[in-house]
Amino acid sequence: MSLANAPAIRLLLLLLLCSAALTGCSSEESPAELPPRVALVQSLEAANSSSGPLRFSGVVRSADSSQLAFEVPGRVERILVDEGVRVERGQPLAELDTSDYESQLREASARMAQLEADLARKRLLEAEGILAPAAIERLEAQVVSAQVARDTARRNLGHATLEAPFDGVVAARLVEPQTVVAAGTPVLAIQSEGPVEVRVDLPETAALSLPLDASLQAEGELVTAGEALSLGYKEHGTQPSPGGRTYQLVLQGEPPDGYNLLPGMAVRVRLSRPASMKDSGPQRYRVPVSALMSSPAGEHFIWLAVDGQAQRQDVEVTRLEREHAVITGTALEAGAPVIVAGGSQLSQGLQIRAKERR
């Protein structure tokens, strides 16, 4: 080998070594490509047109509920009832320490008696011409003022006893004896024993089409007991619920005999469809509840598996059927692959591998 070519050969070897080193580093730093996420899918099922009732979940609330408070301040001396006890209208429920109010009443009564006695004596003197009428008028004004003070003290003493405003059940004791309370501080909560109310949240489609008046036909069923509950329309809200697109419907009915129907208990509600709802409107589809997603704004949507990607599809819920939801949407077709699990982990355009749910 010629010595003149030695530097060129060494340079060539150096370039080859650097290229090999860079290739090795590039191979080591390149991350392995993650496999697509497996997504369980189920074919979108068309919901058959039905003339059956609409079904919703409802919650019991008391028709009359009130927090009771003393109209005067003081120290709570006694709570006369326990939670869950039935009470009658006018029944004493709690008492304040009345020593200060009794003292005020005695003082006001004594001052009034004294002024009335002075007035009687001075009227005799006026009749004899000893006193001028002006002196009598001033004393008469003082007597009227004393009478007002006495009546106020008597009324305050009466307000030291808290009475039930209606027949009902004591729902909660909010303070304990020996507590000093200001006027208007809630002491007891009481609920009526008469008709109960059931609150139902209606989706837009139901609120739009149902007759929200006395002609609405409704039936209820206690979730835990399976007992029927006759219901009728009472009122409805015209403002959507915060964070959602539902409207409140309030039904009313008598509780079934032998059951303590308490606020917060769950009721299944069936609302009869009007004729205009039975076979009209957009095509409806049935999906598992697990496939239904909600955005922070209260909008509902599902995920579809389209060409190996997750695609969001906005929908509207028309009713719930236990484990399924009946929905409508502008671009839905029967048989479309709906992702039925893990929707909270998906994003628009995410690569997925669809797997049929069995």
UniProtKB/TrEMBL annotation:
Keywords: Coiled coil, Signal
Annotated signal sequence range: 1-23
Coiled coil: 98-156
Domain of life: Bacteria
Record has Coiled coil as a keyword: yes
UniProt keyword Signal, yes or no: yes
InterPro entries: RND_pump_MFP (IPR006143)
A cellular component term, taken from the record's GO annotations: efflux pump complex
MF terms in GO: efflux transmembrane transporter activity
Family the UniProt entry places it in: Belongs to the membrane fusion protein (MFP) (TC 8.A.1) family.
PANTHER family, sorted: EFFLUX RND TRANSPORTER PERIPLASMIC ADAPTOR SUBUNIT, MULTIDRUG RESISTANCE PROTEIN MDTA
Stated name of the protein: RND family efflux transporter, MFP subunit
Species name: Halopseudomonas xinjiangensis
